[in-house]
Design goal:
alpha+beta; 119 residues; 31% helix; five-stranded mixed sheet; 2 helices; Trna Endonuclease, Chain: A, domain 1; 5 strands
């Protein structure tokens, strides 16, 4: 279990750095409320991006992106709604839901970024 937590933490850190290199500003990590959790909250210009980070050590059972099902999407949407509720200054921004996949091959992360993933 500890290995999985470390893999997730490492993947979130890599996703954060990746998005920062793309010009996004980090706002918060691991935002939790009773309706769900958001791994990363980033911003670029007037757009708030709620990011779900998924990782796997192999693609033997599919790609990490494939694990973000409708139930998970709904939890992230509800958590994002609550985030905007408690941060009213952000409520007028455009919002988007992205997924960043980190697939570890030979201890090397391979990143796939899916913008506007919840459609």
């Amino acid at each position: 279990m500890e290995f999985r937590k470390q893999l997730g933490d490492d993947s979130e850190a890599i996703a954060k750095k990746y998005l920062e290199k793309k010009g996004y500003t980090f706002l918060q990590a691991n935002f939790r409320c009773k309706t769900g959790e958001i791994d990363l909250i980033m911003q670029k210009e007037n757009t708030i991006v709620f990011v779900e980070v998924r990782s796997r050590k192999s693609n033997r059972y599919g790609e990490p992106l494939e694990t973000v099902n409708k139930t998970k999407q709904e939890k992230v949407r509800k958590a994002a709604g609550y985030y905007l509720y408690i941060h009213p200054q952000k409520a007028k921004c455009c919002c988007r839901f992205d997924v960043v996949s980190v697939l570890w091959k030979n201890s090397t992360p391979q990143i796939t970024w899916l913008e506007d993933a919840f459609q």
